[in-house]
Amino acid sequence: MSPSESPSSPSGDLLTAYRHSLLGHFTEQVSALASDVDALSETDRKLPLASGEWSPHQVVWHVDAVETQVYQVRLARFLEEEHPLLPDFDLEGWMAANYSDQESTHSIVARIGEGRLAMRRRLEMAPVATWGRTGFHSYWGTRTLMWWVERSIAHLTEHALQLRGSQAAGQ
Q1: What is the pTM for the complete model shown?
Q2: Which tens digits make up the pLDDT trace of 128-149?
Q3: Is residue 46 part of a domain?
């Protein structure tokens, strides 16, 4: 929102409505992920989606790792700093060092939901101007807080579609 727009201007209203819708999707899409996991048997959750690919359990664990180690950290930085420098993250190294198939997929999905709900509450309390804050990332360049929320949603959507594709292929 430009400095000349007030939150009650037509464009301000559209941005407010968009942010509200975005935050709804941010938390609600975890329920869809839980449904995707429920559609798979316990055995299928541990089997590779295709030859050489991750299992559904690994996919969900990956989503959680990216949520907790990347997106939640970056969103928090935007809430705490004016122009955060957002470091890169070695996801493959993190997964190699930390992945375990011992935790239930449902437990992992629940943690994703809890993290997103907590972040949604923080984002809802943030001043409107915070959504336009920019931060710099070595790969993505200069992006806003809103873009990072959208990217988090897109990442989960990408992997939910991956799981749904495996279900469709198995039917």
Answers
A1: 0.88
A2: 999 999 999 999 999 999 999 9
A3: yes
